[in-house]
Amino acid sequence: MEEERSGGGATAPTATWLIKHFSSYSRATRHPFILGICDGTVDFSSFKRWLAQDYIFVREFVPFVANVLLKACKQSDDISDMETILGGIASLSDEISWFKNEASKWDVHLANVAPLKENIEYCRFLQSFGSPEIDYTVAITAFWAIETVYQNSFSLCIQSDSKTPVELMETCQRWGNAGFEQYCKSLQKIADRRLEKAPSNIVEEAQEVFVRVLEHEINFWNMSSSGC
Ligand code: HMH
Questions:
Q1: 206, HSE (Cβ side, Cα atoms, 13 Å)
Q2: Residue 226's pLDDT band (boundaries 50, 70, 90)?
Q3: Which ligand 1 atom is the nearest neighbour of the CA of 53?
Q4: For residue 166, what are the contacts with CB-CB under 8 A and spacing of at least 6?
Q5: Would the pLDDT of 148 be above 60?
Q6: Are 52 and 43 in contact (CB under 8 A)?
Q7: What is the pLDDT of residues 14-54, one digit of tens each?
């Protein structure tokens, strides 16, 4: 893996973690659900389950990102952080409309969907960032990790050698496109800038949060793949 270099020449914290936790990161970004989309063997009922559950997740993601924004406004040393995060909130508005439209195409009735256990647990984790005790550095790290897992997962499905079913291409483009990749890189840059200045207890807390995001993402894919 290419190492991201930070200003001082040392390896950036997030790049170090991606190497250290590569096994979990791969399980989150190369999950059988994603590999099934890529090779065209995915079960459409699993896709529909993912779609409905992710709509619930994204609705909970909005207040999470709003909390990250609030922490940035209070704690950030760089005014451009707020603009990047605000851009993220703006795209979530479009994303909610996209989910509603996509669900109607697949005949999924979002109003009748109840969140499954793994989703409830992930949403509870997101809600915990509402606490003022959680530092901005830790919150922006979580935000970067959550977005990056989707970017890295879905970008695989839009590669020219993938056999992604045409019906799923729009979904994969949504998180796999180059613009979303750039946005994830800007979140990573913010996280690394903050982590490089942070005391060791905050860096440690951020690393734990990164690992927990990977676990929640793996559970979310497992939830989407299983059952009926
Ligand atoms: C579960 N993780 C999950 N859903 C999403 N939509 C994202 C990450 C990215 O926004």
A1: 27
A2: confident
A3: 1
A4: none
A5: yes
A6: no
A7: 999 999 999 999 999 999 999 999 999 999 999 999 999 99
- Beta-carbon contacts of 87 under 8 Å, excluding residues fewer than 6 positions away, are 183
Tokens of 83: 């603009």
Q: Which residues pair with 5 in a beta bridge?
A: 11
Tell which one of 47, 150, 184, 214 to mutate to probe ligand 1, the residue whose CB is within 8 A of the most ligand atoms.
Answer: 150
Check if 181 is active-site.
no
Q: Pocket around ligand 1: residues whose beta carbon is below 6 Å from it?
A: 54, 57-58, 146-147, 149-150, 217, 220
What is the token pair recorded at 99?
A: 């989910």
Tell me the CA–centroid distance for residue 145 and ligand 1, in Å: 10
Task: Give distance in angstroms: CA of 9 to centre of ligand 1.
Answer: 32
pLDDT tens digit string along 187-212?
999 999 999 999 999 999 999 999 99
**CA–CA distance, 185 with 191 (Å, rounded to integer):** 10
Cα 109 to ligand 1 centre (Å): 20
